């Protein structure tokens, strides 16, 4: 598993070991830095959502990743 690239920043994910160095989510691979950025981006949105559902969360994560891939960077909203 040495050919993994982060789907957003295109960084090589050379040491992909389980969930430690990359995150596989919504059929995408994210490097650790992008995963942390994703969480930073969605955290304020999560706070406003009542009631919380995992279906909504999954969609939010997917949409945020797809937007970041299209723009080539992470957006705040
Ligand atoms: Zn990345």
Plain-language structure description:
This protein has helices at residues 32-48, 54-71, and strands spanning 22-25, 28-31. With 77 residues, the chain is mainly alpha-helical. It has one domain (1-77). Strands 1-2 form a two-stranded antiparallel sheet. The protein starts with 21 loop residues before the first strand and ends in a 6-residue tail after the last helix. The chain binds zinc ion. Zinc ion (ZN) binds at residues 6, 8-9, 11, 30-31, 33-34.
Number of strands: 2
Q: In total, how many domains does the architecture comprise?
A: 1
Q: Over the alpha carbons, how many angstroms does the gyration radius reach?
A: 13 Å
- Give the strand content: 5-15%
Q: End-to-end distance, in Å?
A: 33 Å
Name the average pLDDT: 83
Low-confidence stretches: none
Helix content: 40-55%
H/I helix tally:
2
Shape: elongated
Bound molecules: zinc ion
Order of helices and strands: EEHH
């Amino acid at each position: 598993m040495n050919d993994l690239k982060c789907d957003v920043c295109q960084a090589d994910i050379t040491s992909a070991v389980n969930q430690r160095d990359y995150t596989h989510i919504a059929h995408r691979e994210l490097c650790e830095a992008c995963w942390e950025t994703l969480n930073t981006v969605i955290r304020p949105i999560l706070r406003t959502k009542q009631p919380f559902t995992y279906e909504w969360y999954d969609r939010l994560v997917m949409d945020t990743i797809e937007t970041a891939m299209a723009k080539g960077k992470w957006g705040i909203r």
